Structures are given as structure tokens and as C-alpha cells.
Amino acid sequence: MRAIVVVDKARGTAGMKLEERPEPRAAINDVVVQVFASGFVGTELEWPSTWTDRLDRDRTPCIPGHEVAGVVTALGYGTTGLSVGQRVFGIADWYRDGTLAEYVAIEARNLASLPGDVDFTVGASLPISGLTAWQGLFEHGRLRAGQRILVHGAAGAVGAMVTQLAREVGAHVIGSGRTAARHAALDFGANEFVDLDTDRLEDVGAVDLVFDVIGGDIGKRSAGLVRAGGVLVSIVGPPAARPTDGLAVDFVVEADRAQLTQIVQRVRTDDCGPTSAPSRRSTTPSLPSTRLSDGRGR
């Protein structure tokens, strides 16, 4: 099969090459997916997991990419819940060869069914941004209706999904970003917008949840806005400052079939009907199904 491989961390994306590689085989609980669309995050080449396995052994040449949409072509021993010929989407394991290839071997539990009315390209754009937003809001942030949330980068891929899901659950959303992001953030559903170029962040007042995709000075100043009992959720590493009387959480997104299923329902046509939101934790609220955009025009 053809695949994009990397062998030199120092060269970054300039070191990515198209090569012939052996087709993967399905291990226990794996499936092999024929890749119709895949997603690549530019920072992947800085992640230790791109270059080593879980025992810190070098695994180059490696295939990057972790988001995928395609069709199951083979099942490993013991695999359940999926079938050959099924359309699927999801996240490849961080420490294994990824999705910038014609085929990928992936744990079945990392995948969900992709409805026939959702394009493969759309499916591959959803997993990391969508699961990051879902888990940050409902598992770690414990967002509830009526709360105030400050979403940094509200017009970006993650921020756009955070904004829409927070509005859907009935929160008051304050989006932030640079001047050019104002209209997009408001279109995604933000009730207010803080221009980080011209507005004073502290004028936002107290909030129940900060969802931080920026970090640095913005993240540090945001900690002071979290009211007692609130949460600062960061996806850019451990927060530089913690709320005085609240929680600070940083996390790495995890694959979750039930959550992927809920997310993909929100990009379907409005007649897909109502759904509830199952989760591994009881704090995830039940949400009606609505259209959801990933902030990348898909």
C-alpha cells in the first residue's frame, strides 16, 4: 500500500515522504480499515508517541495521522461490534502507525459507525475536535444548563464545537479570539465575544467554566475569572495558574464509541430525530440532536 512516512523528527513536515509499505494485519480486537479520508494535526511530529512505542522504543519509519473515516476490510480475532464492509470513523492509537495510508489497523473500540449520509471527509474531521470538546465540557468541566462558560479560540476547530455544544446544553457562552474571529464565533452560537486584541479579558466577570485552547498569559489570567466551585479546562498542558477556589484540569482526548456516535448525529440532517447522550460518566447531559459544524467549513 501507499503511505506517508516520517523518519526524521528534526525535519518536520518537510521530512514526510510517500512510500510503499506493507499492508497492516488485524491483531486481536483490531480491524483493518480502508482509508477514504484521514486527518493530520501539525503538532503530531512533536509528540513522543509519534516516534516511539509505549516502551519508549524507536518505531521509525512511522506513519502519522490519527483521524480516519473509511470502510472495514478485515476483523481481528475476538473483534466485536463491527463488520466487514461497514463505514466507520474514529481515532487511531497514538503509539501505532496512523491513517495517512491506504489502510490502517486500529482497535475496534476506537471506531464508530459512520452513517451513509455523512461524507467520509466530514467523518475524518470530527473525532479529535469533537471528542476534545465533548470530554472537556461534560466529563471534566461538568457543564450544566444556565452556567457561564468562557471559550477561548471560539472560532477554531475545537472552540467551534465547544461553543455549539455548550449552547445546546443551555449555557451562556462567551467566546474569545482575535478581531477577525468575531463573526464566526457569534455565528457558531456565542452569546458574547471578547476581542483579545482590544477588549479587557477581566471585564468578562465570573464564569463557571473556562475552556482554554491558548494557554500562556491568557490561560493564567483566565484562572482568576473562575468562580468558587468552577473549573478551568486546558487542552494545552497543565495550567500555569489555578482558580483560587476551583479546579484546574488538563487532559488528553480518548476514543469513545458512544460519544463519537452522539457527535456524528449532530452533523446529520435535522430529520435524524432526537437522541440522548450516553457516556462513561453520569455527568454527561442529555442533549437534543442538532446540526454541528467542526469550524473548518465541513
Description:
The radius of gyration is 20 Å and the shape is globular. By secondary structure, the chain is α/β, with parallel strands linked by helices. The strands form 3 sheets. Strands 10-9-8-11-12-13 form a 6-stranded parallel beta sheet, with helices on both faces. The protein has a 5-stranded antiparallel beta sheet with strand order 6-3-4-5-7. Strands 1-2 form a two-stranded antiparallel ribbon. Helix 3 (127-140) packs across helix 4. The model is unreliable at 270-291 (pLDDT under 50). The chain has 2 domains: 2-125, Alpha-Beta Complex (Quinone Oxidoreductase, Chain A, domain 1); 128-250, NAD(P)-binding Rossmann-like Domain (Rossmann fold, 3-Layer(aba) Sandwich), CATH 3.40.50. The protein is built from 7 helices and 13 strands.
User: What best-fitting shape do the alpha-carbon axes yield?
Assistant: globular
| Major sheet: arrangement of strands | 10-9-8-11-12-13
Number of strands: 13
The biggest sheet, with number of strands, parallel, antiparallel or mixed sense and barrel status, is: 6 strands, parallel
- What count of domains describes the coordinates? 2
CATH architectural category of the largest domain? Alpha-Beta Complex
CATH topology of the largest domain: Quinone Oxidoreductase, Chain A, domain 1
